[in-house]
Design a protein that fits this description.
alpha+beta, 29% strand, 6 strands, Aspartate Aminotransferase, domain 1, 4 helices
């Protein structure tokens, strides 16, 4: 997995757009264009998906080599870092789908 494939999947959802926040790309959807994923934070080897704490726990339990909570309060709220090089396309699609649905449903 790399940033290009993550970006391609993130933008494959209906109404998804790419913008920039805090000097790195983010992906937004829904009426309010809420961020559901981003790339490049904390470094270029990482992505981020906005999950619920329960979704985060399940993904970390299923693959701790790919998923870990973001630092501090963000991580406690479900924001989850994704180690791109350790992730498969299938796993990333699942995580991005959950994150997308969290801001659009």
């Amino acid at each position: 997995m790399n940033q290009d494939v993550f970006r391609e999947i993130a933008l494959s959802f209906a109404g998804a757009i790419e913008k920039s926040h805090m000097t790195h790309p983010d992906f937004r959807a829904g009426k309010k264009q809420l961020i559901y994923a981003s790339l490049g934070s904390p470094t270029t080897e990482w992505g981020m998906v906005k999950l619920t704490p329960e979704q985060q726990a399940a993904l970390i339990e299923s693959d701790s080599e790919v998923f870990q909570p973001c630092s501090g309060a963000w991580g406690q709220r479900g924001y989850t870092n994704v180690k791109l090089q350790n992730a498969s396309k299938k796993v990333i699609k699942i995580a991005l789908q959950l994150a997308y649905e969290n801001v659009t449903i």
